[in-house]
Amino acid sequence: MTNEIPDFRGTHLWDRLNWAHTNLKSQQSKYRIVYEDPLTPDEPAKVVVPAGEWLACALAGGILPPIDAYLGMPLEIDMEDGTTIQCSYTEAQDIRQTTKIKGERVLPHHTLHTSTPIGPMTEEEAIEYLLLKDVPKRVWGDSRKHNRLMFAICTIDQLPAHRKYRNAWTLKQFQLMEKAA
Amino acid sequence: MSTLRVTNAWPISGISQSLMRGMAKVWNQFADAGTVASNAGLNMSSMTDGGTGDYTTTFTSAMISNAAQAWKHSVRTDGGATISCLFNQTSYSTTTHRQTTFNDAGTTGNATIGSLVVIGTLA
């Protein structure tokens, strides 16, 4: 396996990932993102697990687009009432949860493939990138104020080792309360 | 009779496999012990463990629409059955796919091993 990253500027993102699949060794992260979704308060805490091949791309650099390419990705959504709206990737996260939709499309002026790939990240930077990309903005953004901890980045050994009572998992609030005291 | 052996297949014109039809654009094999983890995959950035039998795969390179894609689920649950289906009508988007697994009793069950394959057109 080679670790020399080709110049991927202008290359379709999927082709870069396909190259990485063959040429980079999968990297398992010690971190997990745990969050509670304010729009589904009855659901248990969710745990985001980075994919090993994605983390390898993040650590290698030169493959993934800047996070803005995702956050600003333009979408067109067909609503159930027959109307069509245009919105961003982060806005669509809320629309899908709060409104019935019939379909969605990525608009052609997105920049996933045309943005200059970003350089290598540390594992911690990669997890922050993943938080912004794969966790809804309503969890980590400033636009909604929460009176409790909504997400945490932790290590594997801080999570239960078994799945008994999995649907009762919630975020412990003790750390936040200690900081406030 | 001839034998055709290749290490890569490319379209007649252009150099991008991303444009080839019929290829899996996302695949993910995962196992669930403690929290879920992907054993291997392509074009996925993370898996989200949403509770018992609740798994969401998030893509790195988006699909062009949620209509231009098809899926294949395979799963074995801790209850022995092999049923996996979409979580609800909004479970599939251009960047995510949420699937739920059930055991013999008809309740959600953790997947001892499972997979997802997405075929369709990329953005």
How would you characterize this protein structure?
- The complex is a heterodimer of chains A (about 180) and B (about 120).
- Helix content of chain A is about 30%, strand content about 20%.
- Chain A is of the alpha+beta class.
- The radius of gyration of chain A is 18 Å and the shape is flat.
- By secondary structure, chain B is an all-beta fold.
- In chain B, about 45% of the residues are buried.
- The model of chain B has no long low-confidence stretch (mean pLDDT about 85).
- Chains A and B meet through helix 1, strand 2, helix 2, helix 4 and strand 5 of A and strand 1, strand 2 and strand 3 of B.
- Strand 2 (about 45-50) of chain A pairs antiparallel with strand 3 (about 45-50) of chain B.
- Please bin the fraction of helical residues of chain B: under 10%
Poorly predicted segments of chain A:
none
- Compute the CA-based radius of gyration of chain A: 18 Å
Tally of separate helices of chain B: 0
Biggest interface, which chains? Answer: A-B, 50 and 43 residues
In DSSP terms (H or I, runs of 4 or more residues), the helix count of chain A works out at 7
Query: What portion of the residues of chain B fall into strands of 2 or more residues?
Result: over 45%
Rg value of chain B: 16 Å
Q: Which geometry of chain B do the CA atoms define?
A: globular
Distance between the termini of chain A: 52 Å
Whole-Å distance between the termini of chain B? Answer: 40 Å
Q: How can the largest sheet of chain B be summarized?
A: 4 strands, antiparallel
Tell me the strand percentage band of chain A. 15-25%
What is the overall silhouette of chain A?
flat
Helix content of chain A: 25-40%
Give, in spatial order, the strands making up the sheet with the most strands of chain B: 2-1-8-5
For the secondary structure, the number of strands of chain A is 6
Multimeric state: heterodimer
Low-confidence stretches of chain B: none
